[in-house]
From TrEMBL:
The lineage of its organism: Bacteria, Pseudomonadati, Pseudomonadota, Alphaproteobacteria, Sphingomonadales. The keyword NADP does not apply. This is Glycoside hydrolase. It comes from Sphingomonas naasensis. The record marks D166 as: Important for catalytic activity, responsible for pKa modulation of the active site Glu and correct orientation of both the proton donor and substrate. GO terms for biological process: carbohydrate metabolic process.
Length: 356
């Protein structure tokens, strides 16, 4: 499917009545027909169902609320029309975002981590740059497919004076939970990946610590800004422990020609590292990926490609002990219907501008 058929399909979905869009429907969507960004898949063994979480898109759900939607599938190829599983309640500090939703099981509940912001809530300036409030909030549900309700009135887990995003849950070998997130380059110039210890209720239990900086990766390229500064982006940390016990982290930044799916490895096998940067898993204006195990036992990776008007892309992966590697593109599932761009377009005009 090329761009015109894709846009026609999305237009037809947007034109459908809201009530009709919310009714359960058969799994008839293919990945090239599905708007998504920062995809996260939960493979639920109990129901033998894949749940793909992403930011709510009104064109897909007919629901204009800011929040998270979920697609479901039995085979990773045919998907149901999405429905909203979390909507930001009125009165909460945030005004925009709903980025990078992740869903994790913890202590008998399901927890949604997703990032919001408020551009009017400014933080102290960094040179000519003007950071503002951004952070990952928490929501909880009894079932993987929700509905989710905000925890602690939607206050971010990390300190609110830090401009952070893309929080993920990491549980160490002692069973202790951590929030790992990206500290935004608007506040740091060189973006970092940081970690905060958590209590059992997933509230912060200590101070942030830096795991690594974006410019430690040889493939990462600083992005020139209008004020003349070069900045380095960090996005989408996600963890995997190999069968041999090696701890690796997927994360994304920008390379010479667009968005990149990177990977780092902990030399100690622990969260504190030190972290060494390996060769990227995927370039091709692709990133913010995560790993999951398919029901047939295969290790899989899902990411979005391209960065603008993003769609889902699936890869079969291999655990080689000291890292994970790409085996092949799963084109039989995603139909490889993705235009790729030599230059990344801005996520928002002030945040993701990249030179060609």
């Amino acid at each position: 499917m090329r761009v015109k058929p894709l846009m026609a399909a999305l237009a037809a979905l947007a034109a459908a009545p809201v009530a009709a869009q919310q009714k359960p429907v058969e799994a008839s969507l293919l990945l090239p027909q599905m708007q998504l960004h920062d995809p996260f898949i939960v493979a639920d063994k109990a129901s033998q169902t894949y749940y793909l979480f992403t930011r709510n898109e009104a064109a897909m759900t007919g629901d204009r609320r800011l929040g998270t939607m979920v697609y479901t599938s039995k085979d990773l190829k045919r998907w149901t029309r999405p429905r909203v599983v979390f909507a930001l309640p009125e009165g909460i500090w945030a005004k925009g975002g709903a980025w990078a939703p992740e869903v994790h099981a913890w202590k008998g509940k399901w927890y949604l981590f997703t990032t919001f912001h408020d551009e009017a809530a400014t933080l102290p300036p960094e040179g000519k740059r003007k950071p503002y409030r951004r952070g990952t909030i928490l929501a909880v549900a009894d079932k993987v497919d929700g509905p989710y309700r905000a925890v602690r009135n939607g206050e971010p887990i990390a300190p609110k004076d830090l401009m952070t995003l893309d929080g993920t849950l990491y549980v160490d070998t002692a069973g202790k939970p951590w929030l790992v997130y990206a500290h935004e380059w608007l506040q740091t110039t060189v973006g970092t990946i940081e970690a905060i210890p958590l209590n059992d209720d997933l509230s912060a239990a200590g101070a942030p610590r830096v795991l690594f900086r974006a410019n430690e990766a040889g493939w990462a390229k600083g992005q020139r800004q209008a004020d003349g500064d070069s900045v380095w982006v960090t996005d989408g940390p996600e963890f995997h422990r190999t069968a041999a016990g090696t701890l690796v982290m997927l994360w994304s930044s920008y390379g010479e020609r667009g968005y990149v799916q990177g990977i780092a490895r902990s030399k100690s096998g622990n969260l504190d590292g030190p972290w060494e940067q390996l060769d990227p898993l995927v370039r091709r204006d692709s990133g913010h990926g995560m790993l999951f195990r398919a029901f047939d036992g295969r290790l899989m990776m899902v990411l979005h490609r391209p960065f603008t008007m993003a769609l889902g892309k699936l890869y079969e992966m291999k655990d080689v002990g000291d890292r994970v590697e790409v085996v092949r593109e799963a084109t039989e599932l995603d139909l490889e219907a993705y235009p790729t761009h030599p230059c990344v377009q801005p996520h928002t005009p002030s945040e993701r501008r990249v030179e060609c």
